[in-house]
Amino acid sequence: xxxxxxxxxxxxxxxxxxxxxxxLHYAEQLLLAGHPTDAIEQSTVVLDKxxxxxxxxxxxxxxxxSLGAPPAAPAPAAxxxxxxxxxxxxxxxxxxxIQSPIKPPFVLMGADESGLVVTENxxxxxxxxxxxxxxxxxxxxxxxxxxKRINEAFLEPMRHPEIAKAFGKSLRGGLLLYGPPGCxxxxxxxxxxxxLNAHFISVTxxxxxxxxxGESEANMHNVFERARELAPAVLFxxxxxxxxxxxxxxxxxxxxxxxxxxxxxxxDGIGSENDGLFVLAATNHPWxxxxxxxxxxxxxxxxxxxxxxxxxxxxILKVHLKxxxxxxxxxxxxxxxxxxxxxxDLQHVCSTAGEKAMMASIAAGEVRPINMDxxxxxxxxxxxSIGSWLQSARNVAAYGNASGQYDDLVDFLKSKKLx
Length: 419
Fold this sequence. Notes:
Layout: H1 3-15, H2 20-32, H3 36-49, H4 54-66, H5 91-98, E1 106-108, E2 122-125, E3 130-132, H6 144-159, H7 161-166, E4 175-178, H8 185-195, E5 199-203, H9 205-208, H10 215-229, E6 233-237, H11 240-243, H12 254-268, E7 277-283, E8 301-304, H13 310-321, E9 329-330, H14 331-337, H15 343-364, H16 372-381, H17 387-399, H18 407-415
Parallel strand pairs: 1-9, 4-7, 4-8, 5-6, 6-7
Antiparallel strand pairs: 2-3, 3-5
Helix pairs in contact: 1-2, 2-3, 2-4, 3-4, 3-15, 10-12, 13-14, 13-15, 15-16, 17-18
């Protein structure tokens, strides 16, 4: 491919940075044109956002193999479904080719080699972000107390309605997931949809708000109506405090108060049936949610989703290191040093370490895998991001828990000697 065509592809990628297929096509052409280092750089951008992407992984592996290997005719593009995984690579052969020993990827893999499962979902209605989830709570690494609470408070009664009714357990109402940002609340919500074999409909404030009078309330109604049509369905409100904030707040406009009123009516099923409709929500600040939304029959069950525990951190680190060239990674050390890191923080650590190894590889003209020095350096740069949340949570736990609804939060803060 000519330099002009490569330059045109580069311009297209800059204009459409989130177009995965376009970026991978550009990476493929860079590799065929004899620029494996640039191909690795473009493929790594995809892997940062889509860990384990098979086409990007195959490109990285082919580009890495071409660095230091004798010149050869360009290899055809790897078929998406035939990309080799790390376990299938002949590491001894690569060592002989590039004269640099590549150590096993992990010093410690743990009992579960698979780590956290990354699953695909089928788009049913992309415009409304409607999917049919295949993941379940078994795919959520660690967080056993959270999964136990979700099963007891929400899933088991739904699976056994007759027994639940015999014990006076209402099947109405929703589930509110709360906790610090970046700790997997949305991932857990998707897993719940998979457990219920239900459509998953994700809603944010941008789907509801409209500048014209009455349109926001109509949008709220339409979202619920679409969910009822797709039942069984999980309707998930992300950052629900933005949509259902306290109506008494001085910051709340009259239009937003009407939106909250409409949401209350929809959850109560006034004029409609909510059979087969499961309403979930997530928020970092449940104390900012309107109290009426937390009453029985609405979001009357709350589950605290905390920063990942040790098994979860190990699983998350495996996911975000998967598909990248790595050597000698001591997961036990990383897990021990990342207490208090959110899932998003851990992803940032792996991405930062990857950038360090990539720049070193570019400078050396050959791929140098991510090692523990890169990750230790990344930990110096990336600190836990939940400090401000902990401070606000501490104030609520100390002075706003008369009803006991935040007892789980109080227990957590006490365990960390923050209360």
